[in-house]
Batch of 2 targets.
Target 1
Amino acid sequence: MSTRRVLAMQDVVKRTPIEFNNNNQQVSQYYGSNVFGLDAMREFLSEEAFNSIQNSMHQGTIVERKMADQVAACMKAWAQSKGVTHYTHWFQPLSGATAEKHDGFFEPIEGGRAIERFSGNALVQQEPDASSFPNGGIRNTFEARGYTAWDPTSPAFIWGETLCIPTIFISYTGESLDFKTPLLKSLHAVDKAATEVCQYFDKNVTKVIATLGWEQEYFLVDSALYNIRYDLQQTGRTLFGHAPAKGQQLEDHYWGSIPERVSAFMRDFEYESHLLGIPVRTRHNEVAPAQFECAPVFEETNLAVDHNLLLMDVMEKVAIRHNFRVLMHEKPYAGVNGSGKHNNWSLATNTGKNLLSPGKTPKTNLQFLTFFVNTVKAVYEHGDLLRASIASANNDHRLGANEAPPAIMSVFLGEQLSNVLDELEKAVHNGKMSPEEKTALKMNIGRIPDILLDNTDRNRTSPFAFTGNKFEFRAVGSSANCGGPMTVLNAIMAEQLVSFKKDVDALIHKKVEKDEAIFQVLKKYITESKKIRFEGNGYGDAWKAEAKKRGLNNIPTTPGALEAMISKKTLNMFESQGILNHREQEARYEISIETYTKKIQIESRIIADMVNNQIIPSALNYQKGLVESVRGMKDIMTAAEFKTVAKTQLELIKEISERVTVIKNEAHLMTEERKKANNLDTAKKQAHAYCEKVKPYFDSIRYNVDKLEGIVDDATWPLPKYREMLYLR
Ligand code: ADP
Ligand code: MG
């Protein structure tokens, strides 16, 4: 019955680390060599073309067609010098994964010969068939065309034999169909709003960029075991599996020594990442067995998002060379810590200043305080939208599960800064602050950096925490495109900063002195946004009760959480910032809710298949042996002997029958619920039905399957067990 599992385990036992060799080169010798970055551009482009691209990257100007022809020809020459034969527009459709369609450079010409060609047109724009990608009803079937357009702010790169050109993806009528387009618009909006606010403090600021440093958590599993678990292959998580006797109780995995095989894999994917200019620098074990994390040096957000997506792809491909599979799912194993993708976010100016880093001088402190308080206010205003931005069927398993941030949005500031805000609130009384009070306040902030950066004042249970010089959005799921949550964060910050400037200017207009006006507005925001601040244990039940009292939402599942995507407040915010119009945002909601339904639907089908084709047959097979043995006993024993000796076996036989009956029944009822859900007339109703009517069966079926796993003979059980998958050598 389980020959496949036995064979797979034999493979696993025989594994040795796959040697990885980069000839002892230092990273600096090859870093970025597969990127059409500054060095390659300087070498291959004319000065005119080089300047045109640089202007486009930094000022957002359009690269003219004539220039594009030149750039394309040079890109092709550079790529060919590295053996590249194909090119692709690389984009981020709303399905979540990245998309690519590889075209050869060659073109047949007369005489049966061929030449290699890559024109400016091919670089700048392509027309993939948009009908195969999610579009939320935007694309009518008679207008299937969408197009991808070159994003010169993220450099082209070589992956395998292909030159990849990062692009946006929009419908023929101009609506965005991807993650990148609104992200770029949100970056533009926050740049504009933040630069204007910076003028209060420093006239030299002409540009503000949002920075992102993600931390990627993931699991590794041996590919032999992965290959015989349909659930892992099809859904990314194990739908069944009894918790191992030794899980993470001993807390001996976190930052422990990395197994040889794993470390060879890490060296290999880091090498590939460095060739692609992805600045991964940190690696360590995570909390759960077989769980790891990697993190890069932070970058400008658009580039950081591209790099994260590319890294996930690189990891998956490199893992296969090492006979591993990477699990990016938020919760591959029930009862074991899940995976997230912490998004460290800040704003930086062209003058080299991190706007969320408390400074040493009173002037920069007020600037810090301004951006700091405005971030808190933005999260207060749009906490539900931030919650929606990280909602997915996968992440539902993780949020609020006492290992990940709760589904309640709150902001953690740390004791020092909480005190500063409280003092400021008290100090600005009757709309006035004495000069001494102002100085004292500013001086206090000056003492903060040293206190914060020594890492003592940290709270790991908050979904959105200030960590000394950046905010860390911890609720993002490990498999998510961070472009989604980053678009929201930048957008709400942009809207917030615009309001702030309006409020301050109104006071200045009334002849209030500038600093005073800023203090007054900040005080008002501090008072208004107080309820989003929480310093305590986000995992505790006390917080749930407290949050409820404060009127903060706690929406545990995706269909409910997604509603915030189409609230009036959200639609207006996105539209006022020029990021997404109502139609685009509504389409995004439709796609998210349909994706949720599809995911649960697939899981439900796989549960039924595995139960009927693998689990029940194995259990019955084992039971058959028991029945035969009992029958044999009866033949050779006296009735009295039999009665005492066969008891245990008879109980086992009975338990198997009972559990099989329950499983079979529940699987049937689940299928019936699915049919009902499929017949509902809106995507929203379907999603709710899948969440509330279909999904509850997952747990009851699983409970009984896992019990069977506990009693059925180890050799008969068809699925690799947690203890086999989670312990890597
Ligand atoms: P941890 O949260 O695990 O203690 P670190 O404090 O070392 O980790 O930083 C985590 C991530 O934060 C890194 O990826 C780093 O690049 C990023 N980071 C640091 N400074 C900034 C910043 N100003 N903007 C965005 N990300 C940043
Ligand atoms: Mg972190």
Target 2
Amino acid sequence: MKITNICCIGAGYVGGPTMAVIAKKNPHIKVTIVDINAERIAAWNDEDVSKLPIYEPGLAEIVKETRGKNLFFSTEIDKAINASEMIFISVNTPTKTYGKGKGMAADLKYVELCARNIAEVAKSDKIVVEKSTLPVRTAQAIKSILDNTGNGVKYSILSNPEFLAEGTAIEDLLNPDRVLIGGESEDAIESLANVYGSWVSQDRILRTNVWSSELSKLTANAFLAQRISSINAISELCEKTEANVGEVARAIGMDSRIGSKFLNASIGFGGSCFQKDILNLVYIARSYGLNEVADYWEQVIILNDHQKRRFSDNLISTLYNTVSGKKIAMLGWAFKKDTNDTRESAAIYVADHLLSEQAHIAVYDPKVSEERTQLDLNYLNTRSEEENKDLVKTYSDPYEAAKDAHAIAIMTEWDEFKAFDWQKIYDGMKKPAFIFDGRNILDQKEMEAIGFEYSSIGK
Ligand code: UDX
Ligand code: UDX
């Protein structure tokens, strides 16, 4: 099928950047991103590209270049579906918060709504592409909905999982390690391979069956997260034995079979994918009665929760076993640097624990809004919205955030933190002045020379 029009349902962290790059590299294809959230679409259409709903290095430039030419953002979902030969489903698939599989399984209600929406309005044959991360065998469910409720038009379903990481999304999209396309129809697979073929060499485009493709996405995320939990487990042992986790990571990473990436010990991984996808994997394994498999992967999450808790426990015990009434400055709220995304950020859980111990929290993050910080805490339902507002203040100036603080907790590895005037921060703080470096980004000797009581992960 010759593709001239693409529609993407879901203008989020995945849909937005992915479609922007597809549009840039395929000037002959009209790409329309639709979303039920009118406010989000309006932000994507904002004249001022610094107001786009998503912060990603390089994204604003591409949107500026393509928007209005062959990239469009709209709330007219039906119209965009009808006009396209290829439809990407890129809506969110959060962990279920109710019913069977609560807290484990992926909630597919938005994906199903999309399928029903497509079935209702489509008047010509369509290729439907699963971009959202989905449990294995979801394509079959989508196909069944399309075939049974549609108007007799033909559908081909493809699985095309996204491997981009936030903060480097554009770079990852422009130079992907691989593009994975799972499907039954060879024609449909080649149509999508041609879209990517505009900038990705064909030997990097893998063709598999649909189930392998779906499972590969969950497996890739599980393996990546597992590496972080593995090194974080070793970090705790390092703290007891005077080994240094940085040195251990370097030593093992030079073994080419292990590799050096994804071995940074931290306060624990966050983000919209790792936890959700592993829980999903665990749920699927258990539903087939594979309890050993389920337990094995579940441990990655258990260790990650432990790492977050260990960080806040350590902070409290170091501050003479109480943070009640003390000001703790948290540098960083996003789940990693170079993004404004805070989903599952370790900062949220560390803050929540400290607040339960009656700490006052001052947050500084270069890209996260005060509103977002409050929403994240309120979502946990641990205390009233008024209390959160009262106890957690957001600052646009890091020096103000740190002023009169008893301790600083570094939650995100933003580059700018390294360049702060740490002497000035020290001078403004209560003494002894503590730093808890949850990302191991500062130089211990330098901090101690200034006078800080410095502790980090795994040292
Ligand atoms: C994506 C994937 O799709 C998810 O499966 C993956 O695991 C993480 O990344 P992401 O782009 O990060 O999700 O989600 P989000 O930023 O929440 O964007 C989803 C968008 O879909 C939202 O803007 C939402 O308004 C929209 N949406 C949701 C619809 O347009 N229709 C719906 O029915 C539901
Ligand atoms: C991840 C996958 O990397 C990506 O392929 C998939 O498409 C979506 O999920 P993302 O969650 O955006 O991407 O970012 P990632 O760079 O993987 O970081 C996830 C979390 O792990 C962050 O909180 C990060 O700080 C943490 N992390 C990462 C570590 O703690 N140590 C590391 O060595 C690497």
